[in-house]
Amino acid sequence: MISDRKLEHLLLCTHSDVEYHKKTGFKDVELVHKALPEVNQEEIDLSTSLLGKELDAPLIITAITGGHPASEIVNQKLARAAGKLNIGLGLGSQRAAVENPELESTYTIARQEAPEALIIGNIGAPQMELSSRAAEMMDLDALAIHLNPLQEAIQPEGDVDSRGYLENIQETVKNTSIPVIAKETGAGISGNDAQLLETAGIKAIDVAGAGGTSWAAVETHRSQDKSMGELYWDWGITTAASTVEVSQSVEIPVISSGGIRNGLEAVKALALGADVVGMALPVLKASYQGEEILQDFFHNFINQMKVAMFLVGASNLEELQNTDLVIQGKTREWLQERGYDTKIYARRSSL
Ligand code: FMN
């Protein structure tokens, strides 16, 4: 049953409208153009590291799949791309294979195809008791616990008793041999929640904010009664706002994701304070078009990032984090109401 649901998710996400109608907020973020960039665009260095692994670019393919025979080929293609580009790869929830070991190969294929890449395992918060088995299933660099209260609330069979999760996270961190990441699945993480997660021992946070794939939307397509999913389609903290909230609230690495669709948005996310950027839906769609198109997607994306970095005079990611930007519109309103400082970005290069 879980396995069938995995296939349904893949098909729905590639063929139906599953994205937020509201935006990520990155349109409210303007990088300050430099007429004198003093940088050679061809020498821009995008390399970084996350949880001890070097990455050639600050990119992660966030959790998508595994657990259905059809997902093996998807993970194979994603892992080949991640390996060639030396970027990170997140696997989909491993619950299906913990419960049915015959499905393990739909995940382990990723390590076979990308022996050196940063590979992140995945388990849902409602199934945290399966964490150590997920972590031991294969050679993983980290395990992500996904938080998906929106999806649980909308899906008919959802688990809506979330009491004790934070305590369970603390236990899981203690009992897991690899670093544990917390990730949302598209509704964002607030600064307050980020602080609780950091205190519980989480080693990185993926904000997975609102503006991209909406799990209320996915569940709307799956339900007979669409009214609940439609009402909550746009629920969540936008990715731009969540990226600021989380990166101003914790010291651990921050992954910005949720609706990031081009290299300019990625650069804005990094300039706001993220360490790495993640994407799921566009990567899945490109993978269905073939491995060459998938690689072109990333090459193009990286080139787009380099143009933005050139235009703000940032020759590496550290310089990018000191570049000037202005936060306007709804994102500024949100952040100011929530007590976050939006001005610190505006003239920081001259400080
Ligand atoms: N996130 C998880 O943590 N575990 C999953 O098993 C998982 N499955 C997904 C399956 C599909 C088909 C898609 C599109 C996304 C899935 N996600 C899962 C969520 C993504 O990792 C990501 O957080 C979310 O889609 C927002 O990013 P995007 O707008 O770039 O798609």
TrEMBL record:
Protein family (similarity comment): Belongs to the IPP isomerase type 2 family.
Domain FMN-dependent dehydrogenase: 22-94, 165-324
Subunit structure: Homooctamer. Dimer of tetramers.
Any GO MF annotation of the entry: FMN binding
Record Pfam families: FMN_dh
Protein's organism: Methanobacterium formicicum
GO biological process terms held by the UniProt record: isoprenoid biosynthetic process
Protein known as: Isopentenyl-diphosphate delta-isomerase
EC number(s) from the headed UniProt entry: 5.3.3.2
Alphabetical UniProt keywords: Cytoplasm, Flavoprotein, FMN, Isomerase, Isoprene biosynthesis, Magnesium, Metal-binding, NADP
Residues involved in Mg(2+) binding: E152
Catalytic activity field: isopentenyl diphosphate = dimethylallyl diphosphate
Keyword Cytoplasm: yes
InterPro entries: Aldolase_TIM, FMN-dep_DH, IPdP_isomerase
Entry GO CC: cytoplasm
